[in-house]
Design brief:
219 residues, 8 helices, alpha+beta, disordered N terminus, Bacteriophage T5 Orf172 DNA-binding domain-containing protein, 44% helix, 18% strand, six-stranded antiparallel beta sheet, GIY-YIG endonuclease, plasmid, Phage_T5_Orf172_DNA-bd
Amino acid sequence: MSITEPNFPFSEGKETIQAKSLSGKARRCCEFICSLIEDGSTFNTDELAQKARQYGFGDAALKSAKTYLLTTQKLIRFQPKISSTALWMSKETYLSQGHSQDRLWEQRWQLESRYRYLPLVPNNPKGGFVYFIKRLGDGIYKIGLTACLRKRIQNIASQCGSHVDVIFYLEFDSYEAANSLEDKLHEQYQYQRLIGEWFSFSDADVKQLSLGMKRRYNV
């Protein structure tokens, strides 16, 4: 197990999720979403989820499909300044509304390259990561668990419409050990929980948690 504090906040890189990694249901969900938006239709997040559920697609298939389509730019997530709800549309619709191709590629490049310094997977195939991040849009924090760190952080940034600051991450040789620590941290800070895995921390809380992890794991 090791703990790492990232010190390369920005580095170049490009990564594409391969279609072959999708389940059969996720692929069908991709086709379904494309059929919805090909005529120029636009949906907010709740509307898109409702449509998918009506046709038998669960949250897991929808999440995988959206991630793949976003990465390949067949689906665009746009956050209007006057709305708290994101809009989902085709790239053609996005561009027809006056958004430039240069800006589109800039947004994608920033998302993929910003987190390039993070490891993809743990050294041990059976391992996992516990991560501690701050959402830059509103300053709230997340304590989470994953087996694919870089992709998970990229997905969080894409889904919440704001880049995140990775305070630190812990790598474990055992996914179960990582899961155990995540559960303990969630319980320890249950009174600071906002929703799900998101928490409200003061600067003192962040410092205490970071130092506590370093001392606990002797790194």
